[in-house]
Amino acid sequence: MNQSLILAVDQAQIDMGQARVCFYGQLNGALLQCAVRFTTLSVLAGFTVDSDNAQAIVEQVWFDIEERMEEAIESEAFELDGSLVI
Length: 86
Fold this sequence. Notes:
Layout: E1 5-7, E2 13-15, E3 20-27, E4 30-37, H1 38-45, H2 54-60, H3 62-74, E5 84-85
Parallel strand pairs: 4-5
Antiparallel strand pairs: 1-3, 2-3, 3-4
């Protein structure tokens, strides 16, 4: 695990408008807005994720989310606003 990346699963919130779960992270001490799409969660979980089960699935596949976030950082896949969405 990348020790310079710290993600806060305990503060995750569902964004229904964008079909994703949003949370904050810290990257080398800087605050980073992060999100994981329901489609990504569905791939990680192996079944369809929606607003009813998204929070529970995030907690179940958290280590996979961390790995994907680290890969996105390494490939500099930041959004135009500086956030990280997988």
